[in-house]
Amino acid sequence: MSMIRDLTAAVRPSLRHSLRKTPTTYTSYDPTRDHSASSAVVDCAVYRDGRRIDDRECLTPRGAMRQVRESGGFAWIGLHEPTEAEFAGIAAEFGLHPLAVEDAVHAHQRPKLERYDDTLFTVFKTIHYIEHAELTATSEVVETGEVMCFTGPDFVITVRHGGQGSLRNLRHRLQGEPELLAKGPSAVLHAIADHVVDGYIAVADAVELDIDQLEIDVFSPAAKGSTRGTDTGRIYQLKREVLEFKRAVTPLLRPMQLLSERPMRLVDPDIQKYFRDVADHLARVQEQVVGFDELLNSILQANLAQATVAQNEDMRKITSWAAIVAVPTAVCGVYGMNFKYMPELEWKYGYPMVLGAIAVICFTIHRTLKRNGWL
């Protein structure tokens, strides 16, 4: 811990010094303009008593924070894949911890909940289901993204990575519920968690349909005219996608339990009750995903067993035909030997009799093997 404190003490002064040397400029949010070309800020607003303040000063992070400090309320700043330079000014303005800032900029983080002084840092993995006409051995089923949330006493900063998981509709919905937004930044944190978990539920339902279809294909291949053993690649691919889904869901269980059970100064007690509902939904999705993984294991084992059984059937057929062919081979081999004194060589009906005997024996063997299920 002392090493972390020393590192923090060394990084923060240098960061502030660099910011004093190079002042950061912010681009005002304009909903009619694409900000991705010039700024990572996709939306910036101040909410007071649950309502958005219509003031151009609130369209920049620095102006929004000035409004909050002067008149109260809280600021909600949304960013999409910011660079270090784009996020440095905001981090200094709101006093964000350098370790959390590094995680937010570079992404690829495990879902987690961390507390830095008066700020909660939460990482969510977003999941998007990719529509496909038919599951193949190379199909992508789920696509992941990330949403990082900095929650302070009077601000919320959301950092999104990936092409999916936009929070624009969520923000508009919350603005239609001023009594909920009046609870402060923790209401936004809950809404984001609920939004992410609702996405998990929708994806879980879609993946379940894929597994059901795969199960039908594996256990009734004749209906699809498929070749035995060709479903192994599809099963393995879907299992990999479910594993990626599991990595997003399972680590989030502990953070949701903490937010729903442990009293926190930054979380309104009324909002904490709603986190329990999110935690329950997440636990249900986690059970589904674990069940998917186990079911796919069973389907994969059944598919491999089917392939083994099919190979055994093929070997039995080959062995049966080899036994039938062995009869004429043995008889013809005996009469193919060049000896003068052999049975029935001088008899007129010897040749037809031998052919008839071969046919009768082969027919008897074939009928016996077929009756026993070998042919």
Radius of gyration: 35 Å
Number of helices: 12
Mean pLDDT: 82
Please state the structural category. Answer: alpha+beta
Low-confidence stretches: 1-38, 223-227
The succession of helices and strands, N to C, reads: HEEHEHHEEEEHHHHHHHH
**Biggest sheet layout:** 7 strands, mixed
Shape: rod-shaped
Task: Tell me the strand percentage band.
Answer: 5-15%
SSE layout:
Blueprint: H1 2-21, E1 41-48, E2 51-52, H2 61-71, E3 74-80, H3 84-94, H4 98-106, E4 112-116, E5 119-129, E6 142-151, E7 155-161, H5 168-175, H6 178-181, H7 185-219, H8 221-224, H9 232-249, H10 253-261, H11 269-335, H12 350-371
Parallel strand pairs: 3-7
Antiparallel strand pairs: 1-2, 1-3, 4-5, 5-6, 6-7
Helix pairs in contact: 3-4, 7-9, 7-11, 9-11, 10-11, 11-12
Task: Describe, in plain words, how this protein is organized in 3D.
This protein is an alpha+beta fold and 375 residues long. The chain has helices at residues 2-21, 61-71, 84-94, 98-106, 168-175, 178-181, 185-219, 221-224, 232-249, 253-261, 269-335, 350-371, and strands at 41-48, 51-52, 74-80, 112-116, 119-129, 142-151, 155-161. It has a seven-stranded mixed beta sheet with strand order 2-1-3-7-6-5-4, sandwiched between helices. Strand 6 (142-151) and strand 7 form a beta hairpin. Helix 7 (185-219) packs antiparallel against helix 9 (232-249). It is rod-shaped, with a radius of gyration of 35 Å. The termini are far apart. The model is unreliable at 1-38 and 223-227 (pLDDT under 50).
